[in-house]
């Protein structure tokens, strides 16, 4: 490899290799699509090999598949080198990317975001929203430093996680529904009750699947749509209490909660910017006890 290869070319290559889409990679990296194309072409010229087959669907060539592992190793070593220098200096600075589910971005993260930026102004913080799977993948692939989700983090020896608290779950029902007048529900109250659910693999669907009794009658692609469908009388739903219910009636489900989980790469724990974020999150979680469950935020994309 000659001197023309740049780290940004490898970062761009890795993003395109993962998404297999120049447009998506450009959006993720905040580049113009033409810049992504030019960087890939420059990398191919430097290596003397095509890295992608450009047909109806983009796919990696054999050379591209081999380069993916090396690109990951190079970029991980660069991050480790930066972390080592940061640790010696001790003062957090540089870039930090935080990710969270949409409802957590709106409800819990603003306080953390503001406190962290106030205390450590030399760190350039980026906040991204995504589904649970997208967030975990971004952390695993070193594209995000820390993410916040509901439920358990994936079992991965390269990751660490911590519970920052819990959110109560409620059953939302149409106005006038037989369950709407109850002060609290127990699982037995849900026997044979028709529910709307998010698709399989989503966190809230997994929570619903663990309760015996509800009958899933339809799947809805977002919490916002689910809440509106419930309000229109199409069925019931299970959501965190902090989500806006769009006119549906929210009834607490006895003992039902979901954990708020923070996840990061184990090898980054000593990186000052990450360590400072973890400490700030722990401190805020110890004082953020009771108010989160009663607040409402507008539901958007699936938070799972």
UniProtKB/TrEMBL annotation:
InterPro entries: LysR_HTH_N, LysR_subst-bd, WH-like_DNA-bd_sf, WH_DNA-bd_sf. Residues 5-61 form the HTH lysR-type domain. Pfam families: HTH_1, LysR_substrate. Residues 285-304 are annotated as: Disordered. The keyword Transferase does not apply. SUPFAM superfamilies: Periplasmic binding protein-like II (SSF53850), Winged helix' DNA-binding domain (SSF46785). The keyword DNA-binding applies. It comes from the Bacteria. Belongs to the LysR transcriptional regulatory family. This is LysR family transcriptional regulator.
């Amino acid at each position: 490899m000659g001197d023309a290869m740049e780290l940004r070319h490898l970062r761009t290559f890795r993003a395109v290799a993962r998404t297999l889409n120049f447009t998506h990679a450009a959006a993720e990296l905040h580049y113009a699509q033409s810049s992504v194309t030019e960087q890939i072409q420059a990398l191919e010229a430097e290596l003397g090999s095509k890295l992608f087959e450009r047909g109806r669907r983009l796919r990696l060539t054999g050379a591209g598949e081999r380069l993916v592992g090396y690109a990951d190793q190079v970029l991980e070593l660069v991050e480790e080198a930066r972390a080592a220098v940061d640790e010696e200096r001790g003062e957090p600075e540089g870039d930090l990317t935080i990710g969270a589910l949409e409802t957590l971005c709106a409800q819990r993260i603003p306080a953390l975001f503001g406190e962290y930026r106030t205390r450590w102004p030399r760190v350039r913080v980026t906040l991204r929203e995504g589904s649970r799977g997208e967030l975990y993948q971004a952390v695993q692939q070193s594209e995000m430093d820390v993410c916040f989700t509901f439920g358990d983090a994936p079992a991965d020896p390269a990751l660490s996680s911590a519970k920052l608290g819990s959110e109560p779950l409620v059953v939302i029902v149409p106005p006038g529904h037989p369950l709407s007048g109850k002060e609290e529900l127990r699982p037995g109250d849900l026997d044979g009750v028709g529910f709307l659910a998010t698709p399989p693999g989503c966190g809230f669907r997994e929570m619903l699947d663990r309760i015996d009794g509800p009958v899933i009658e339809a799947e809805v692609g977002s919490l916002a749509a689910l809440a509106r469908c419930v309000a229109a009388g199409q069925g019931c739903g299970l959501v965190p209490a902090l989500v806006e219910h769009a006119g549906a009636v929210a009834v607490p489900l006895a003992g039902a909660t979901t954990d708020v989980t923070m996840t990061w790469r184990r090898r980054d724990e000593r990186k000052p910017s990450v360590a400072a974020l973890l400490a700030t999150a722990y401190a805020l979680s110890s004082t953020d006890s009771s108010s989160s469950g009663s607040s409402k935020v507008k539901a958007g994309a699936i938070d799972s």
